Amino acid sequence: MSIENQSVNAFARQNRREFLRRASGGFGALALSGLWQELHGAAADPLAARPPHFPAKAERVIFLYSTGGVSHVDTFDHKPQLFSDHGKSIAASRWLNKPGKFDRYLTKPRWNFRQYGRSGISVSDLFPHLGSVIDDVCMLNAMHCDSDGHDKGTLAAHTGSAQAIRPGVGAWVSYGLGTENRNLPSFMVIAPAAPYAGAQNWGSDFLPACHQGTHAIPGVEPLPNLKPNSAAAELQAMELSLLSKLNRNHLEQRAADQSLDARIRSFETAFGMQREAPEAFDLSRESDATLRLYGLTRGANTGFGWQCLVARRLAERGVRFIELIDVGSSANWDSHGDMGDHEKLAKAIDQPIAGLIADLKQRGMLESTLVVWTTEFGRTPFNQKADHPGREHHNLCFTSWMAGGGVKGGYVHGESDEHGILPASGAVHTHDLHATMLHLLGIDHERLTFRYAGRDFRLTDVAGEVVRPIIA
Amino acid sequence: MKRLSNHLAIACSAVLSCSAAAPAAAAEENAFFETKIRPLLVERCIECHGEKKQKGGLRLDSRAAWQAGGENGAVIKPGDSEASPLIKAVRYTDKELQMPPKRQLSSDEVAALEQWVKLGAPDPREGNAVAKSGVDMEAGRKHWAFQLLAHPQPPSGSQQPLDRFVLAQLQQHELQPNPIADRRTLIRRATFDLTGLPPTPAEIEEFLRDTSTDAFAKLVDRLLATPAYGERWGRHWLDVARYADTAGDGADYPVREAVKYRDWVIKAFNSDQPFDQFVREQIAGDILAQAGAAEQYAQRVTATGFLAVGKRYGYQPSPDYQHLDFADAIDSVGRSLLGLSLGCARCHDHKYDPVTAADYYALYGIFQSTRWAFPGGEEQKRPSSFPPLVLPDEAVRLDKAKAAELARLDETLGRLKRKRGALDGKSIGGGPDLGFESQVLGQPPAAPWLSAGPNKVLADAQSPFAHIHPPGTRGVRVGTGNANEGVRYVFANGLRAVPGRQMHFTIDFRTVAPADKTGAYRFYLGRGVIASLAVEISVTASEIAIRDGAKWEVVRKLAPGTWHTLRLTLDHEKKTYSGAVGTVGDMATFENKALGANWDGVADTFICDAIGHIGGPAPERDLDNIGLGETPFAEPGSGPVVPAAPPADLADRLKNFDEEIAATTKLRETEAAKQPYPVAYGVSEDKPVNVRIQLRGEPDKLGAEVPRRFLEVLGGDVVPARATGSGRLELATWITRPENPLTARVFVNRVWQWHFGQGLVTTPSDFGLRGDAPSHPDLLDWLASEFIASGWSVKALHRLIMRSQTYQLASDDHAANLDRDPANRRLWRHPRLPLDAESIRDAMLAVSGRLDRSIPGPHPFPSVDTWGFTIHNPFHALYESEHRSVYLMQQRNRRHPFLALFDAADPNQSMAQRLPTTTPTQTLYLMNSPFVQQQSEAFARRLLAAPGDDTTRVRLAFEMAHGRAPADSETGEAVAFLSAYRQKLASLEKPPGEELEVAWAGLARVLLTSNAFLYVD
Questions:
Q1: What is the Cα–Cα distance from B18 to B25, expressed in whole angstroms?
Q2: How many CB pairs under 8 A join A and B?
Q3: Which of A461, B104, B389, B542 is most buried, taking the most CB atoms under 10 A from its CB?
Q4: Residue A228 burial (CB count, 10 A)
């Protein structure tokens, strides 16, 4: 365990002691409500940590999302025949998600692939750093989803549904497992800009709103309202002290009301968050070596390297689900006009992601942290003209990958056909990906339900199969 | 399985022929079935079409089962193998229909099945015809919610009827009701409940002074009469109606007119509009408006915003994603009005409730027959089909007036531009040079031209004639012979026919020699791209033909390589044109030829393509010296044109023109953007159609057509054949007829929930089989009956509920009751409720004195002519306001940060109940947000402006914020707090403001964020 880690735990312990001291020192009702909860079995705290359905491989998720549709054949799905068949015509059975017969031309990637690691998995020159940790990565090369529209595809990747707004996967995980650290939200999203379909991707919909993602925006103030308004810490303490007296008087006549107590406790938490959240976002105590690993310069407070390192710090602090989004709904991976755009986008995330995986590993956290990378869909291996510099949307086959959290490293699951157009074997649908993520967290995706409007809803709707071959 | 037609009728008649078979033959047929068919069905079909699975709703494991058919009707037509979809499927000839899907049957097996069907498909297997759907309509009808209202009598007793129902259950469950709450609690409870605002100290005092027995009833009446009542209860309805100010498509287009529906709802509550009428107008207000009073027209059309205001999925007004828009509308109508989750029946019959897919698509047909306002989207970035809020005749008149005004402005603009053009010396002889001379040699002609095909600007294509424009250096060579390729020019100042004036057009052209292609090319003049044709001239290498009405007339022979000039004079009044074509001194003339019969008098587009009087590839040709004007052009040979010397005051005159043109252009833009009459975000009638079931909810997998009708379980009434409308009027009537037990039950339960935090049925939008059973079924029915009897008066319902003892009970804990009924289902107390998001914000603003009680105008959205939102760059805005929260602009896709934080309704779907949460991020907002800081400061200033000492002001502060007087100990603590706070402030190097005010703001924040503020007893 690293020093940083120890200090975090010490802090948590101290905070707990402080909390208990205050509780015994004044909030006498706490004991009563605890007893009440025991007697009546009421789930007063929807965020309380809960045991999984079965022993979990992973305790938390870092979900990396690249907006716009990352081309699979240019990155992680090496198709030698696409190179050799460049310019040859094929008859595509779908084009822009419309069925029919279309004469199209196979278009080769403009980046070479090379093999990495003991596993010898091929990765294109867009992701050389990721190559360095490839033996921890499990490729899913036959992903597919139902929609080739950005907004619908993004929603499906997050909520399992492109057609109706549903809770996001992070909200489901928070609902299923609760959180270890009440000084931070259970589900946090760090994104410089909203992806397609906006905050609906991390909304809680019908789930209790405490499970919704809290959106932190890279920069000077990632979360609002963390800075005390009072001119001095003592002033805020005075206010909170008076407040607690008033609330205590108020609670005396209403001792059984857990929501009153919850609000009182939330002031404790918020008070803690004022300190703990900025600390989680503060990289000043990270070593030079760590910053280098993520490709960060000291003092930076934006960029995907910053997001990745903050993700590690949030993971250390017990945040259950951390999502990082690289870019928003414009100037993203949607390279219709020129695949060359992939270059700078890949450069922005390659080293940070590789750094995150390496860092988690060296701290012994990779086993318990499931890292998932995905995008809404891939891009067409063929085009209307062979020399067209861009690629279109392709939801029939693309690549996602996982690392850590109990998946096999240096492993490729699923194979696309010789040109990367359709899954050839081991096809994995978005629902399957979600089912597998939940499984690794110890959750049976068919049992994680929420009764709403007369129906038991699931993240995976009525589908989804756990991809068992990838589980270590 | 796809596209099977409905063979149900045929299957029925076949049963008769089957049973008529002779006994001996029957034995043989049975043997055939047992040896060849049964094993085959068992091995290859029944896995998916048997007891365990019924793919496509089809079972093949008994005779009755296959006779009943599947989702698409019958699959076997006994005796006719060619007409049996089952045979078609096993033959694997139709790509869309191949069974078994994984491995084809052998040819022997196919032949056996064919023979079996030809024999009449004899099948000895007994078994019931299993219902195709999981819906058992008869069992479903027995569910309590579908029973007619029971009109129960209250139990005997001296209390109010409502309380008697409640007391009976309390006694039964051995629960002791709490005492009546104290006066201060009552006024705070009733005021927040009915208005979403805290009572003022003056209001509290007045109520405390009123010792009459009906003091509380009078209070309720007073509150019901304030406009704040509609703002509070209208907001409840807006949750159910999934109200938002943006469309919710990927680009989240703003909807300027949504607020009209919002305001209509608020007004409907304030005016106590009968609820049945309220519902009818939301479903069919546009139709009711046609027959109703003129002064109610606008209001009724506005009411249909209920349907339109849901989440939209499309990028343009097209059928592409309409099935999703309709899914929202159907589901919202089901949940909000009927308490049924109809959305489940989109893909299959409802799993639990007696709602079939046919029910769903019967309603779908009604909405398909409706025209929906399109809010704007990625591909069509402007709103369309918004229904007018003026009577139809008036709308037509205003539309015409607007068109006429725009035409007048266009005419003025054209005239100004032509005059200016004549002045600046750049265009001679009428009309500018159409950009020829500024084009780049060797390139296709660029803007203002459009070019398709291998066309080039060449020096070689310069016309030798100089009577229109001064001698130039280049022309256009149209190098394509393809029919649909060529060049197009849109005149910036096109002409519009004016009575008494003619139009003149001229062009020089030659066919490039040698002309080996024999087809014709064409000159088109008119409005737009063949939108309204004025003249067509067709040219081959050897002749020129003009269009005279319907026929082509060759007017002259031409020689390839020779330049010709063509001049036309158009007379819109006489519908004729005349002209001449040829070379200098050798012109062939033609007169009084018929103009395009439907020409609307606008000439703004010239096209040269190759659709002429002779087919085949057209030869290459050169074009130059095009002119269009209101004055005749110079005669051929009269040139060369020399630019006139510019007048001395040219600069001034040009400047004047430019200013006038700019002003007129702006005026035109303003006029064009003006909606000639107000419109609503609502619906109107479209062509009535029935639709076909979409199998598994997929619009390209169609099943049987269903007539537009109401839900079968609620009567199944069909839209009458004689009805000319969509069926929405009928739907509105069916939903609100007293025999439909759901509408009144669902709504009184909602009202109960909004008063008490939970309904008598705790699943307010699900009264189906999986919903919660009512805790007090008799009370629910009694309330619903009373509600209907009162003329569906919502305010009467409030009075009924709030005057009861049950409503007025204290919220105190009671150990024994808590043990027996911790969730208070039996109503032994009034629950303690947290303030909802709107109430927190409104109450803070009210206490701070900053609340703006006026009704705001429209949201300050960007002007519609600037809208270019896409999914890549969606609309996003956050508008500051100190109006009540119901008036905040609420986006669908990016929630309002405050409202989302405090659990306000997510407008993506009909919201039955808010689920309040307590999160640290909320608390951080309370502790540190600028909003709370501002309200604290304003509250402090308000307190400091009041007379008296610290103690008096502290008491006032508690009265204002918590509606109660503080205990002496609390007053003492607050006063001590103020003094300690000021002391600390004085010790700071940089105090944040005036000491007294900052200290009071600190106290104000404590009061505004304490539980006594955030909860109502």
A1: 11
A2: 208
A3: B389
A4: 18
